[in-house]
Amino acid sequence: MIRKFILPVLLLFSLVSFAQQGSASPYSFFGVGDVRFKGTNEMNAMGGVSILPDSIHINLQNPASYSSLKLTTFTIGGTFSATKFKSYNGSEKAQRTTLDYLAVALPLKKFGVAFGLIPYSSVGYKLKTTDDVNEIIRRYSGDGGLNKAFLGLGYQLNPRISIGADIGYNFGRIETNSIKYLGIAQDGTQEKNVSELSGLSINIGAMYNRKITKKLDFYSGITYAPQSNLNSNNENNIFSIIYLGDVTPIPLDYLDAKNYKNTVKLPSKFSIGAGVGESKKWLIGTEVSFLGSNTFSNRLSNVTNASYENGIKYSVGGFYIPNYNSFSNYLKKVTYRGGFRYEKTGLIINDQKIRDYAFTGGVGLPVGGTFSNVNVGIELGRRGTALANLVEENYANVIISLSLNDKWFTKRKFD
Predict the structure, then answer these.
(1) Which of its termini does the chain have fewer beta carbons within 10 Å around, N or C?
(2) What are the C-alpha distances in Å from 36 to residues 33, 80, 102, 123, 406?
(3) How far, in Å, CA of 335 to CA of 320, rounded?
(4) CA dihedral of 232, 238, 243, 249, whole degrees rounded to 10
């Protein structure tokens, strides 16, 4: 069944990931944009805790988990996001619907192989500032983002320990525009920057589990992604324009375009977590991630009001299944998830540290008599601050994902 869906969905997802504008945040101006990927819906609904070696769900955060899969698994997830932006100058609202990830994993005895595509970051903002004294109006906009295609391998050393690694190819295009003009005149100037980004990254991981008592299990996981570099080919254009409100500006006189190359450093990331639970019944765990953001470099060299420090994220969460084997009561077979995460992003703007936190929850709904399921999650959070002429974002995300399971490479007894 899965094989009939994979190719057309992969093609559709590839097209949509290039076309969609996955962010409306003004913070997506910095670096490579608003980093969206926080794991699959199942893990995200638990606050981002990713220590469980699941047999029917792909854990994209720790490649060691691939070896725990028992069936070929296909997963796809998307988010509807509603955000309210608040500042001293007023408030605005925005909505976005995006695809978050697509992946396929295949169990091969003690090995597990996974591959897929993830929209890693998004740029999407429209801002306006007004200097009433000099009657100068400035408008800023940007779109694009970074995508990641990955291939991973996990291996089970023994029933307790698994290791794994995945390699990703990061690629994307980001375009930003800034327009400056006088309120009493139609003529203005526009600066357009286009960056083509590409580069490799790697993520390695390990998982450990053991019995504590007859029913109680201990789980732990660790991942490390070293600092990686992106090659950025940039083009800068400055020209005069006729600006007529929301109509596309009409270019007049161009200066010679400037083309240059630079390197964008993506920060290293180290995560470690642990938890306890009863197999196919419940789990409670915690995880902490350290981000080496102080080495991060901006895509554009003319950003002066932003700097970076090392980031850190704390996660706590878990799940509960009333009765995994229930035949008479569907609600008892549902997986109930919940969690909380708090993150110091490492981004500092106008001397204000940008923080992000959210309460998360969700349910896993079994499909028929199979191991496949539909997962619905919700995320309620806040990012940023309205201090220092910045923006506070209050967001509500509804995440829906599909996990299909099937057995491949099994010889038929009957045709």
Answers:
(1) C
(2) 9, 13, 14, 10, 29
(3) 6
(4) -50
Region for residue 302 given its phi and psi (left: phi exceeds 0; alpha: psi -120 to 50; beta: otherwise) = alpha
Tally of CB atoms within 10 A around 211? 11
How does pLDDT run across 149-182, given as a tens digit for each residue? 999 999 999 999 999 999 999 999 999 988 888 7
Q: Can you tell me the distance from the alpha carbon of 341 to that of 356, in angstroms, rounded to the nearest whole number?
A: 8
Q: Domains along the chain?
A: 2-406 (2.40.160.60)
Residue carrying the six token digits 């940039």: 234
In angstroms, the CA 246 to CA 163 distance is 53
Report the alpha-carbon distance of residue 228 to residue 297 in Å, rounded: 11
CA distance 122 to 34: 5
Please give the full DSSP string across 65-124, using - where no structure is assigned.
Answer: GGGG--SEEEEEEEEEEEEEEEETTEEEEEEEEEEEEEEEEEEETTEEEEEEEEEEEEEE
| Contact by Cβ (8 Å): 337, 364 | yes
pLDDT in tens, 43-57: 999 999 999 888 899
